[in-house]
Each structure stands twice: as structure tokens, then as C-alpha cells.
Specification:
heterotrimer, A mainly alpha (494), B mainly alpha (571), C mainly alpha (98), B: mainly alpha, two-stranded antiparallel sheet, globular, C: 98 residues, mainly alpha, 2 domains, disordered C terminus
């Protein structure tokens, strides 16, 4: 590792997942080999990321190009802070998620483990490919790889419902990306002669504001993974998947890849200054604010926990797009922080949903009365994750809300703060009833709940519980570690 | 390092260990936490400590001065009494949770008082909201569950408004210091300072923002309400005194707060809700003191907060004991309890006399500071309203509470006397109420400003006794003539109607409409996609690829692997 | 209220505060105290801030009137805002059922 070059590190980031996939594929019915390879892949990938992180934080911008597909459009990787942040989150949480997935799959009687575990490394590799992408073309390629490699995961249970959900998943993501994102990329290439991600943007001197607005719309809606309404439906549809998949979709890779692309295109293709000067984003403020609030209101009406969380994710992703639409440095910073903080918070909530399913086969909010007595740790962890998502201190989720508010003020739109406030309050209304039901309400059919005793506790298995508690703890740590994230992103805003 | 720790963190961090302890060890440990806190407080010279840099801001996590000392001290006393009062709770999960929540809540209140900047204030502000709601939920009823959610939304709403105000204030001035904002008339407000003021106003239960208090406090557990009554609202009073002393509109706001709850209290049947209205009314006195803003008035606010926390906790303890033993605090179901709960009766009467401001009880020596400050400034209208409200206090807290629970018509109920720890907490609180009333000089000595005020002049005593005793006479006349309205089991509408009846139905309708709309739009898109797919299927025969998802899944997987391998070969 | 003519109750159950003669005693005591403090107004030197304070027994009269007003106004308020105890329950249950 000591003499590792940047070229090698970037190559390894893509090779390790592929090798992992092949080895998992060869493991056949040997679960130990399958799980060992999964964990080893995850750990070595994270190690490579951690090797890159301090250097990028110190100002290095590793770059490598492979071959030119079109003149000026090579397969190219450049590591800059935003991508580094995304890569760190994705590869770090992937370790946790691998442990969780092993625990979950062992205890739920799901079948076809090999295919299941083979798809994970590819999707993470694709996420890293996006994170390090040096131009729109590379980003697009890995965007599609990510879509396709997660598709078998969504359809994993092979029931009619799963197939239907997966079809919607694939349909929306492919349609938007090929129908909107690809044309936008081609247009950008034709207008500017490049698709390289460049500090300050590449469009400013080449297009009229009208063209830029159209391009922005194509990009924003084309990145279906960011789930901007009305292209959000794939997220609740994908809820048919096993929980570890949901957490990959919601926290580790997929949606994060979407909003990461939104930020990346915003800052490196358009440029914050251009967005602000040409006043391109007023409609995006409206769309993201609408998504933010509406998704929360829909979440209120869902009794199925995972569906509720899915709409919560749609709302939380809109925070990132909202941050970009403010077209200020603080807004962008708020969006970046939101990527990190939401990942940790939401993965906790999904782990909880998986834990109650593994331990007690519960899926609906209304079934949770009194369950907290049996699963106290899980419910405490859930509560912490929920408080972080709501945006309360001392949990990480508080910071993006604060910085986004600053962004709104800087943008001369202080009234938009109201949107953030309303959303936080709605989050309380749909997230915390689960805590109350679990801890304080009587289980159905019991008049007087049995007094608490440790014998009555039936938590999920250790491999499921430990990741849940760990990510909850991480929510707390992130509140104090925010300066590290801020310090990483800040250089690209100067 | 440790000497720079905000005392609130002693309670908060200490709370984390509570679940690990059992039995008597836990009890002693919990009682010791506030004692440690006070010792730490007394050992710190005035100044600012514990600077912590974060996100480009310097947080002053521990600021000790005259004003924060008074509030910090009484918060510790309240925490001690609250813990003692709840000591009979068992080691069960829900009771443990109550202990932990109470300690964190008290610690957050203390922490907020010692916050030197708005960000630290915000952090503790939200923590009070989160921790306190568990004291409501711990009641374990459906009503408490819903009330708790409502309460939390209001409290967190106050917090996010504070945050929004902080952000705007920071943009306006570049500072996050929590000092006087320089606002003394409406015209001085900026967007930032107004939002912060509004946030304080919610927690302080300003008129029309008040109803969370009467909604939530009566739903908490018997021990929870005692703790709740001490911190949230007094934290708001402290914050107003810190940031908005001398702001003129606080006088009409505070005067309104003293007056309107008395009418609601007269007809309220749940005695703990009567006390919640009464709490609102007492806050009004403090807010008026902040609004006047003179040294005497601010001393009055601090002193009144100090004595108010004690007698209000005492009254809630009395009603809590009744709730604990009888299972209800509805006036219609109580009466004659003095026969079997004599100590509780005596202590509650002491609390009632303190809140009514009888001479030689604590309310007298604090409330008269505020009235004297108004008189000094010749604010006759506010003075008249407060005098009127003083008679109102006597009605609902001085007479109604003890009369209907312990005397009045004998309900025939003969509950056991309260447990020893409840009696001990009530006893200490009662002793403090009398002690402060008889020897006010000790409380006066720690007030924020130097002053020369003598509460026990013949004039003060005589006028106050006239006011109170003639009002008692009015009560006698009303009861004997049958004009006094009977207690009726009922709920009374307040501003909570807006969000309990109006808003939920509107929100539900909106949710339905949105689901419907998005369903419609989505339906269109799906139809469109289906059409295209049907078109494609026609061209590619019946075994259309989209039909077999899993086959596609596997195929896609292998294609991807193939692609990846090709990629590798290229490298 | 102070309804002490409850003959269904065992006389031995009647506490000190429920006996008619004690009620009279308490009322008498109240009246005496009021008269005493009212009269005391003439025997000390006042420092009024407001002219109204110079009226003899001003505080007493004010207290009596204020108390009377609070109670009677409260009774009127009931007509406006009093609802059955389960007023909010049916609404919330109806919502839950949805």
C-alpha cells in the first residue's frame, strides 16, 4: 500500500468489486466462503478509499484517463472532494451493510444467496465509479451499471409483487436516464465540446440562459435516482426488496448516487455562480420544496413502515436538490452535509425495519404496540436515527438543516426556511409514533402489559442488531464530526 | 477541563448511567447528581468557560453570571425535588425511562440557562423538548401518546424557529452571542430577533401560543408533571430576561397572560389542568417584569421565577399524590381527602398560600417586587390588571385546588397518604416556600441587581391581606348564595381546537388529494410506458424480455460482469 | 360545594370541616379578619402611587369585586366553550379508523 499510486488506487476501486463478485459467484453453496469474500471485499475497498481520503482532503486531485470513446470524451476519473465524500460514505457503510445483510439473509429464509451477494459488490463498484467520474460520460456509464446491478436485488424475492416493483424501478430509472439525462449530456457535449467536470462549470460562456434552463431541467429530472417528483415512484416500488437492499438503495448507494450527481453536475457543469447569476434555479426551488413537503405528507398516511420510510427518503433527498437550487455556497454545503447525515440516519431506520421483521415478522406501524419492551435496543437506535433525520441536536442531521437555512438566507430567500421548518415538524409526526407505540402503548389484546424483564427481550440476531446500534451511534458521532465533512467540501466552494 | 463543564452536562451524562444501576444505589446516585451540580456551580467564579469551536462558530458552553446563577440554582433545586418525588418508581423499563428522561430534561434546562451563545442555547433548547416528551408518553395511554406528539411538534417548532432566527441574526450581525438584542420597541425588531422572540414566546406560552401547556402537562405522569412544570417555561422567561429586557410589548403580553387564564381555570374540572392555567398566569407576572426592564422589575422576575418554581412544583406534587393514590384529579370525583391524606393537604395548602401571595409565604415577597416596579413606573393599567389577576390566582390556585380536592363535598374516597418520598419532597418544598417568605433577604441577595426593597411594611401587609381576605369573603358569599358554578365533567375549547380539530382534518384531506393526484399522474405515465412496451413486445414476439424479470436480472448481471471483465482487459 | 346537609352520610364520618357550626365559625372568622384589615387602613401612613389607592379599603373592595367578576364571567364563558368530555375523542378515533 505504501508505494501505491493514484492510478492503482482508482483501478483497485473498480477491480476489487469485480474480483469480489467473481469469487462470490464461484462460492456456490459454501456460505462461509461467500460471506468471507463479501466482507474482505468490503474491507479492502474501504481501505483503498481511506488511503485516498486524506490525500484528497490535503488538496490532491488524482486523475486518470483510460480510452477515448469520442474525441474529448474519454473514460476518465478525477477524484475531487465531493466524490471523495460520496465514496467514503458508500464504501464505509457497505462494510456495515455487508454484516447486516449476512445476518438478515441467514435469519429470514431468503433464497438464492449467491446471486444476492454477487450484486452488491458491482453496485458498490458502480457507485465508486460515479464518485470518481471525471466527466459526464463516465458518470452516465456507471449510473446505468448501478441501475442494472441493483435490479436483480429489487426483484430478489421473485414474487409477482417483487417483479412488478422491480419493473417500475427499472422502467423509471432507465426511461429518465436515457430519455432525459443522455440527451442532456449529448447536448452539453455538442454545445461545449467537452463533458469534463470543471471547477466553475463549463456552460457559462456557451449557452443562453434559456438553453441552460432546459438543460438543467433535463439533468435534474433525468437523474431519476434523485427522486424528484414526479419521478419518485420507483422508490416506494422498490420497497418489495429485502431490507439490506433497501438500505443500499436508500443510504449506501442508489439515491445517494442520484443526489450526488445532482450536486456534481450543479457545481462542475453549471457552476454555482452561473446558476445564481443567470437565475436558473427558481423553478427548481419550487419543485424541490414541493417534493420535500408533499412526500412528508404522503409519508404520514402510510402504515407500512418501509413505505413510510421510502417517502421520507424522497423528502430528504429533496433537501439536497433544494440546497443546489439555492445556488449559494452554503446551500451547496448543506446539500453535501445532507448526503452524509441522511445516509447514516436513514440506514439506521431501515436496519430497524429489517430487525423487527427478522425478530418478529412485523411490517406495519400499527403492529408495533409494546414491541419496544421486547426490542429495547432496536427501538432506542431507531429513535436516535429518527431524531437525526428530523434534524435535532445532538445528532448529525441537525447540521444540514442549519446550513441549508443559511443558504436560503444567503440566496435572499429567507421565506424558504419555512419549508425546512414545516418538513421537520412533519418528520416528527410520521417518525416518532413508532417510538411511542413501541415503548409506551399496550400490545393489542393485553390489558396490562407484563412488567419489563430481560428474559422477555427478543432482539434481532447479533449480526442484525450490531449494525443497527453502530449506525445509531454514528448519528451521534457525526454531530461532533461535522467539521471533518465541512472541511473536506469547503475547498471546492472557494 | 472538568471545571469548565456546563453543570447541565453533569445531569445529562449522569443520566446515561442510571439504567445500569439498581435499587437503593440508583436512588442515592440520582439524588446526588443535582447535589454535584450545585457544588460545581458554587465553585465556579463568574465568567465564561468551555469554548468549543464548531462549523466556524465559537460556542460558549458555560457562562455564569448573576442572572444565570439564580435560574441555574433553582433548576438544580427543582431537579432534586423532582427526583426525590419520583423516587418510589420501580426499576422497570418505563420507570427507568422516566428517570432518565427527567434527568436529561433537567440537565438540558440547566445547560440552556448557562449557554453563552445562541447555538448552544438551541442545542439544549431542543434537548429539553425531546427529553420532556417522554415524561408525557410514559403515562402509557392513547391520549398521552397523541398529546405527546402534539406537544413535541410545538416544542420542536419553537426550537427550529430559534434556529431560523439564529441564522438570520447571524446573517444580520455576524454574531451568535446570546446577549441583550437591543430591541426595546416593536420598531427595533429585525427578522432574526423577531423569530428568536417568537421562539421564546412559544415556550413561554404567550397568549394564543399557550395551549400546548394546558394540553400536555395534565397528561403527563404524576411525577412527570412536577418536573415539567419547573423547566421549560422558566427557561423561556430566563431567555426573555436575557435577550429582551425592557421590550415594551412584553407588558401587554404579560398582562394578558395573567388575566385570561383565570377565567378558564374557574370552569376547568381537571385540577392539574387548573394548575396549568395557573402556571400560565404566573408566567404573565414574570413576563411583565421583563417588559418593565428596570432593575427592580428584573429582580422581581428572577425572584418570582425562583419562588414560583417551588410552590408550583409543590402544588403539582400535591395533585400528583392525589392522582397517584386516587387515579384522577377531576374535581367532580374528589373531595374530603383531608381525612386520609392530612400531610398532603397541609403541604398543598402551603403551596396554595404561597401562590396566592399571603404575607410570610414566598409568593408575597417576589410578586410584590413586580407590582412595586409597575407602580414605580406609574403604569396604572398593567398594575390594575395584575392586581385583578392576583385575586384570580387566589380563586383557582388558592381556593379551588385545596378546596375541591381535600374538602368540599366528601367523595367518600379514603386513599392512603402519599408515599414517604413524595411527602419528603413536598415537605422540603413547603419549608422552602415558608423560609423564603419569612427570610426574603437570602433570596434578595442573589438577585441579578442590587436593590433596596423592604417587603414587610405595614402598608404592604395590610393592603395584601385586604385584597386576599375580601376575595375569600367573595368566595363565601358566592358559595352560600349558590352563584358559584358547579364543577361539571367537560372539556373546554381553547386554541388547541385549531390543531386538534381543524388542522388534522385539513391535513388528512390534503394527504388524500396529493395521493390521488400523484396516483393519477403516475397512472398516466404507466399507461404510456405500457403502451410503448406493448409496441415493443409486438415487434419482439411473445417472449418479450420485460415479461421475465428474473431472467432479465440474471442476464443483466452476467452482462455487467462481462463488461467489467472487458474493462479490466483494457487496463 | 359546602353542601353539609347530606343526611345519608354517617354522622360519625363528618369531619370537623363538614359540621355546620364550624362553617359558621369559619365564616365569622373571615368577616372579622376583613373588618380588621379594612379598619387598619386608617391607622398607617400611606404612600400611594396611584390616586385610587387613597380610597379607604381600596384593595379589599377591589379584591372582592375582582373575585366576583372572575367567577361570574367564568360561568358565562362555559356557555361558549364547554363541550362534553369525549369531544376530541370521537374525532381522533374516527381518524384512527381510517
Amino acid at each position: 500500500m505504501i508505494s501505491m499510486s493514484f492510478d492503482l488506487a482508482i483501478a483497485l476501486s473498480l477491480i476489487i468489486p469485480v474480483v469480489g463478485t467473481i469469487l462470490i459467484g464461484m462460492s456456490g453453496d459454501r456460505p462461509n466462503q461467500r460471506e468471507t469474500v463479501t466482507l474482505l471485499t468490503a474491507i479492502s475497498l474501504f481501505a483503498v478509499t481511506l488511503w485516498l481520503l486524506p490525500q484528497v482532503a490535503a488538496g490532491a486531485r488524482p486523475e486518470v484517463s483510460f480510452f477515448e470513446v469520442l474525441p474529448g470524451m474519454p473514460l476518465k476519473f478525477v477524484i475531487e472532494p465531493l466524490g471523495m465524500l460520496f465514496a467514503t460514505i458508500a464504501s464505509g457503510l457497505w462494510i456495515v451493510n455487508s454484516i447486516y445483510a449476512i445476518g438478515y439473509m441467514r435469519n429470514t429464509g431468503e433464497v438464492n444467496h449467491t446471486r444476492f451477494f454477487m450484486c452488491f459488490p458491482i453496485s458498490i463498484g458502480a457507485a465508486l465509479g460515479m464518485a470518481y467520474a471525471g466527466n459526464l460520460f463516465t458518470l452516465f456509464i456507471f449510473y446505468e451499471v448501478l441501475t442494472l446491478s441493483t435490479y436483480p436485488l429489487v426483484a430478489h424475492r421473485e414474487t409477482e409483487e417483487a417483479k412488478k416493483g422491480a419493473r417500475i424501478y427499472l422502467g423509471v430509472l432507465l426511461t429518465t436516464s436515457i430519455g432525459l439525462l443522455l440527451p442532456a449530456i449529448i447536448a452539453t457535449y455538442m454545445l461545449t465540446g467537452t463533458t469534463d467536470f470543471t471547477a466553475g462549470g463549463i456552460l457559462a460562456d456557451h449557452v443562453s440562459p434559456t438553453t441552460a434552463t432546459i438543460l438543467l431541467a433535463l439533468f435534474m429530472f433525468g437523474i431519476g435516482k434523485a427522486a424528484l417528483m414526479p419521478f419518485h415512484k420507483w422508490l416506494p416500488s422498490a420497497m418489495v426488496a429485502p431490507t439490506p437492499v433497501s438500505s443500499v438503495l436508500h443510504a449506501v448507494a442508489v439515491v445517494k448516487a442520484g443526489v450526488f450527481s445532482v450536486l456534481k453536475i450543479g457545481i462542475y457543469i453549471f457552476g454555482i455562480d452561473y446558476l445564481a447569476d443567470a437565475d436558473l434555479t427558481f423553478w427548481l426551488q419550487a419543485v424541490s420544496a414541493f417534493t420535500l413537503v408533499t412526500a412528508s405528507i404522503i409519508a404520514l398516511t402510510k402504515d407500512n413502515l418501509k413505505a413510510r420510510l421510502a417517502y421520507s427518503t424522497i423528502s430528504q433527498l429533496a433537501y439536497v436538490v433544494f440546497g443546489l437550487s439555492l445556488a449559494t455556497a452554503a446551500g451547496f454545503m448543506g446539500g453535501s452535509l445532507q448526503i452524509a447525515m441522511h445516509a447514516v440516519g436513514k440506514i439506521t431506520l431501515f436496519y430497524f425495519a429489517g430487525a423487527i421483521y427478522v425478530a418478529h415478522h412485523k411490517t406495519e406501524v400499527s403492529q408495533l404496540n409494546g414491541l419496544g419492551r421486547k426490542m429495547p435496543l432496536s427501538f432506542i437506535a431507531y429513535t436516535i436515527g429518527a431524531l437525526s433525520i428530523i434534524g435535532l441536536p445532538p445528532f448529525g442531521g441537525a447540521w444540514p438543516k442549519f446550513v441549508l437555512m443559511e443558504g436560503a438566507v444567503d440566496a435572499g430567500q429567507p421565506l424558504l426556511i419555512a419549508v425546512l421548518i414545516i418538513s421537520s415538524l412533519l418528520n416528527i409526526a410520521y417518525l416518532l409514533p413508532i417510538t411511542v407505540r413501541g415503548f409506551f402503548l399496550k400490545p393489542d389484546g393485553e390489558d396490562t402489559p407484563a412488567p419489563f424483564s430481560w428474559d422477555g427481550v427478543k432482539e434481532a440476531p447479533f449480526m442484525v442488531l450490531a449494525p443497527l446500534c453502530f449506525t445509531a451511534f454514528l448519528c451521534f458521532v457525526m454531530f461532533f464530526a461535522v467539521d471533518a465533512v465541512e472541511g473536506l467540501i469547503a475547498p471546492i466552494l472557494n | 477541563m472538568l471545571s469548565e463543564l456546563n453543570p447541565g452536562l453533569i445531569l445529562i451524562l449522569g443520566a446515561v448511567l442510571v439504567p445500569l444501576l439498581r435499587g437503593p444505589v440508583r436512588k442515592i446516585y440520582m439524588l446526588l447528581l443535582p447535589v454535584f451540580g450545585v457544588m460545581h456551580l458554587l465553585n465556579t467564579p463568574h465568567g465564561t468557560y468551555g469554548d468549543y469551536e464548531m462549523m466556524g462558530m465559537v460556542l460558549e458552553t458555560y457562562r455564569l453570571d448573576q442572572l444565570s446563577f439564580v435560574f441555574g440554582l433553582i433548576f438544580h433545586i427543582a431537579a432534586f425535588l423532582g427526583i426525590l418525588y419520583a423516587l418510589h418508581l420501580k426499576d422497570t423499563a418505563s420507570d427507568t425511562m422516566q428517570h432518565v428522561a427527567a434527568l436529561i430534561y433537567a440537565g438540558a434546562g440547566v445547560g440552556a440557562v448557562f449557554a453563552g451563545d445562541l447555538m448552544t442555547l438551541f442545542i439544549f433548547w431542543e434537548l429539553t423538548a425531546i427529553a420532556s416528551v417522554f415524561l408525557i408518553w410514559a403515562r402509557g395511554t392513547d391520549i398521552a401518546y397523541k398529546t405527546g406528539i402534539r406537544y413535541l411538534i410545538v416544542q420542536v417548532g419553537s426550537g427550529v424557529l430559534l434556529l431560523a432566527g439564529l441564522v438570520m441574526h447571524k446573517a444580520e450581525t455576524g454574531s451568535i452571542a446570546f446577549d441583550h438584542f437591543g430591541v426595546t420597541t416593536m420598531a427595533d425588531f429585525t427578522a432574526g430577533t423577531f423569530l428568536i422572540f417568537f421562539a421564546f414566546g412559544i415556550k413561554c406560552a404567550f397568549p394564543f401560543l399557550h395551549n400546548w401547556l394546558q394540553d400536555a402537562y395534565p397528561q403527563a405522569t404524576p411525577t412527570g408533571t412536577v418536573i415539567l412544570s419547573a423547566f421549560t417555561t422558566k427557561l423561556a422567561v430566563y431567555s426573555l430576561a436575557r435577550g429582551y429586557a425592557g421590550l415594551d410589548i412584553l407588558i401587554p403580553i404579560g398582562a394578558t397572560m395573567t388575566a385570561f387564564p383565570v377565567f378558564f381555570a374557574v370552569i376547568e374540572n381537571d385540577l392539574r389542568r387548573v394548575l396549568a392555567y395557573s402556571l400560565n398566569n404566573q408566567l404573565g407576572f414574570m413576563v411583565v417584569g421583563v417588559g418593565v426592564g428596570s432593575a427592580l422589575a428584573l429582580n422581581g422576575t428572577a425572584a418570582h421565577a425562583f419562588s414560583h418554581i417551588l410552590y408550583k412544583a409543590l402544588l403539582f406534587m400535591g395533585m400528583g399524590a392525589v392522582l397517584h393514590r386516587v387515579g384522577t384529579t377531576k374535581a367532580t370525583e374528589l373531595g374530603g381527602l383531608y381525612k386520609s391524606m392530612p400531610w398532603t393537604t397541609v403541604f398543598t395548602i402551603i403551596g396554595a398560600m404561597s401562590i396566592s401571595a399571603f404575607p410570610f409565604f414566598s409568593g408575597f415577597i417576589s410578586k410584590s417586587l413586580i407590582l412595586a416596579a409597575l407602580a414605580q413606573e406609574h403604569m396604572w393599567l398593567a398594575w390594575t390588571v395584575l392586581l385583578f389577576a392576583s385575586a384570580g390566582v387566589l380563586e383557582h390556585s388558592g381556593i379551588k385546588i385545596p378546596y375541591f380536592s381535600f374538602f368540599a363535598h366528601d367523595s367518600g374516597k379514603r386513599p392512603k397518604e402519599a408515599p414517604w418520598n413524595m411527602l419528603a419532597a413536598m415537605g422540603i418544598a413547603a419549608a422552602l416556600c415558608i423560609g423564603i417568605g419569612v427570610w426574603p433577604e437570602y433570596l434578595y441577595a442573589i438577585l441579578p441587581h442590587a436593590m433596596d426593597y423592604e417587603p414587610y411594611t405595614p402598608g404592604h401587609i395590610i393592603t395584601q391581606m385586604q385584597l386576599l381576605m375580601f376575595a375569600v369573603l367573595a368566595f363565601v358569599v358566592l358559595v352560600r348564595t349558590g352563584l358559584y358554578p358547579p364543577e361539571i365533567p367537560s372539556v373546554n375549547l381553547d386554541t388547541d381546537w385549531l390543531y386538534r380539530r381543524l388542522a388534522p382534518s385539513m391535513l388528512k384531506e390534503m394527504g388524500k388529494a396529493v395521493t390521488h393526484l400523484s396516483g393519477g399522474i403516475w397512472g398516466l405515465i404507466r399507461e404510456w410506458v405500457d403502451n410503448i412496451r406493448a409496441l415493443a413486445a409486438r415487434h419482439h414476439g411473445p417472449s418479450g424480455t420485460m415479461g421475465r424479470s428474473i431472467a432479465v436480472g440474471n442476464m443483466v448481471l452476467w452482462v455487467m460482469i462481462g463488461l467489467a471483465v472487458i474493462l479490466l482487459l483494457y487496463l | 360545594m359546602s353542601d353539609n346537609h347530606n343526611h345519608t352520610q354517617d354522622d360519625q364520618e363528618l369531619g370537623w370541616f363538614e359540621r355546620v357550626e364550624n362553617h359558621r365559625l369559619l365564616i365569622l372568622l373571615t368577616v372579622l379578619i376583613c373588618v380588621g384589615f379594612g379598619a387598619a387602613d386608617f391607622f398607617y401612613h400611606k404612600h400611594p402611587h396611584f390616586s385610587a389607592e387613597e380610597i379607604p379599603a381600596f384593595y379589599g373592595l377591589f379584591g372582592f369585586a375582582a373575585f366576583f367578576f372572575v367567577v361570574l364571567a367564568g360561568a358565562q364563558l362555559r356557555k361558549l366553550i364547554m363541550r362534553p368530555e369525549d369531544y376530541y375523542d370521537d374525532q381522533e378515533e374516527a381518524q384512527d379508523a381510517e
